[in-house]
Amino acid sequence: MKSLSEIETTSKRAARAVGFSWGVSEEVGKCVRLLELFGLPGIKNLVLYFKNENLNDFDNLKLIHKDNKPNKNKFCPINLGVNFIDQIKTIETFNKCSFKDIAYPILFLPFLSRASEIIGKKLILNFDENKFLLNFNVNISSNFTKDNFPTLANNIQIHFLDNKDNFNELEWKNLYKLSEETFVEETDSSKKGAAGAGLTDND
Amino acid sequence: MRVELRDPNIIMKLSRLGSFHQSKLSFLRSFLKEFKDWEYNRDLFDLDKNGFGVAIYSFKKKKRVYSLICFANKIDDTERSDRVIATKWDAAFTLHDGVPNKNDIERLKKEVPKQEVGRLSYKELTLSRANKSIRVFEHVVDSLSNGKQPNLDLLEKVGYLYRTTAVYGSGKFGLADRFRIKNREEINGPFRLEMMLVYLVRQFTFDQVNHVAKNRNPKKAINLDPEICKNLGIGNSTGLGMAPFIVNHPTLLNNWILSRETALKEIREIRKVDLQDSNLFKKCLKNSIRNITSWNTESEYQLKKINNLLIDVKKLLDFIETKFDFEKDYPFNELYLWLEKETCEECIEYVVSIMMEPYSKIIQPLIRKMSSEEDKYFNIPTDRNVEELRSIIKSKYSNILSIDFNRDENHKKFWFISKNKEEPRIADRFEEQGSELEQPLAIARDVKRLYEKLLVTENSMTIDKFLIENSDLRHVVRRAFIVEKFPYSEIQDNTISEKMVPIDMLRLKLSFFGALKFDPRSDKWLRICMFQGAPLPDELKNYDDHWVYNSYS
Hints:
Largest interface: A-B, 27 and 33 residues
Radius of gyration of chain B: 24 Å
Strand order of the largest sheet of chain B: 1-2-3-4-5-6-7-11-10
Shape of chain B: globular
Strand order of the largest sheet of chain A: 1-2-6-3-4-5
Number of domains of chain A: 1
Number of helices of chain A: 8
Order of helices and strands of chain A: HHHEHHEHEEEEHH
Distance between the termini of chain A: 67 Å
Strand content of chain B: 5-15%
Oligomer: heterodimer
Helix content of chain A: 40-55%
Strand content of chain A: 15-25%
Number of helices of chain B: 20
């Protein structure tokens, strides 16, 4: 078994070898490490991506807008991911955004995962019928069940989820009521003597 | 009185970092302190008459067990090499998490002796190998088997029976990643398990030498005197492999240096020094003369440093005896200011280390702050702007900005990873091939490039926009925002200069390990000794905390 440290270092060096800058290669190392930590096939897809794609053939999107389309070719998931994470504070204000044609979309996922942690919001990524929940960089959950990830995602939508509860008020009340059973009813004397503060406030 | 932390522009220069010495903060000393109450055992000692076979040593507390598994092998003298290109060693070791079962031992027997080309598992924590100092080992076996203790002069000259040539951890070759174990209370300090491995290897070397002597002459042989054992350590040959580590772990480096600087600051701020504390300081300083005079090296570079150190320490002792009064206010501050004025860098840092000896109360809390989570500071704050970044660089890298990188001598060297051993190397950019594959360790040059680019960029541009066109500078943009928060995270010097001495980088790290007697064998590698004078495992429960200055060697 390869350690995550080996995975990160080797991915970083490989990214440098195919032409990314050292700074971007460091990002690749971190992201492939994350995918493998979350049990997703990062190494496999990075190798396929480097092997099958000519990195000069991609459209280089500089500024990310609400809706983004490549001019001629596809988007590189790494350059797009780095820009996404760098511009996340601006992109967040869109509430949602879309991309056409991202190559090897799995390699884009860890950047979204890190972005989710940076802004403190969950993100949902949809393409075709696939859905990925990026959960503060703690985990990535998905309905994707196939063995192989697609090498191209044609229509990607990303939603920024508001921080809100996953339960309704009634469910909360029921739980709270149960928790109250650990509390002790106060007597007159304990009202006066059991608290530490607020007894002599006129000093 | 408030004392300022020392200026990173002075402390983080390579010549100053290369003058650091071990101290109470050093990892091997904090390891001993942490594990003093653990139960030590020799669980297996299955060596043949020549000392080849398997041995297992462990530290245990409650349900936690760490086991050192040793494999001692026969190798020809012609195969013995301390260089990283070696493929065979006299002994190979791994620290296993828990109690190894038979399958583990069989698996490890095949993999551990192969070192870099073997594969370890998440159940192993550290990996190492070591070679005998043949002349010392043979002499000790010969003496003991004839019923005599060995010649102390020879032992003092060398200082160890074995020397390790690498100690690996943190995910290398399949070893456990640090994240798996980082929450364990007992290893809340850098390199603690590496220190444990070296410490237990030291005990193995004593047991092995006694065992071989006994088998050579069962009737007459005696054991090596424990007092002699105590004054032997484990040698280590260290090459460039260590150097990139300190560049690649900026917040960790900061936390090591910041702990040292905070300790010094707090000691200088002590208004009244207790008599017993000043006496302890003076005693350690006096005793330490023996450490200097028994420091053997053939390196002219180091000999000069040792001579200057000896002259300056004697000068300091004379000053303390004849002109200095520890009863005055803030005596350590005054002493420190005197050192800065009157002595060399080597002596300043040597005495700074000794100043810590009386102050466990100051040092112990700092030891807990010497680890770091580098990943927490990996993301670049891209909503900041160019003006802010420029200002950070101007204030945090001011000396570096004055280096002229158009001059050949200022970028003569380059760091690379060798293809055959995957180890860091350094070469002349103008004479050797490969500089196009340079590692990102020329931080000073790249920071200056970044600064020059920022000078012609609009102040209000945010960093996310700046990075779109300047991806090649991303690694140093990241570092600049780290050094803003962590003042000691950068070496404030030129790591590719013609004049750069790589062993200064190694020595910085080795001093934090707790190494003694740095012996440079060239400008790129050196030998050191670890745990010389340290308590033996059966003495750990009650040992002299100042052993470094109280051993005879």
